[in-house]
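We read letters as residues; the fold follows as tokens. Both lines appear below.
***
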Amino acid sequence: MSHPGSVDIIDFILLTIYPVGALFIIEIFSRTVNRKRQIIPSWIKLSVQGITMIGFAFAYTIFISLITTSSDEHIFAEPHWLSAFVLLALSVTLFYQARRSKQDPTKSDY
């Protein structure tokens, strides 16, 4: 089982799935809205995805004890610094792609 201060394997899997699900939901919403004509530019979609990843990184460091559960009330979850760092790196790449897409929309396939 998990060590004190860490999260259970189910919580870890869910913490991995949440940001991916958010990216997919934003992507599906954007494609659904843009089905007939380009209403939402790709740079806005990419920027929203980047902001969402920053939100998840913030939540994984500040609010992690509210997100995860433990059977022992004396065990508190530690912040997920590495996961937050990876999410921040992903947000930087999303913002970079958004900037490229805004400058020249033909360079971005997103």
User: Anything to note?
Assistant: The longest helix spans residues 9-33. Residues 53 and 90 are 7 Å apart (CA to CA). The chain has one domain: 9-105.
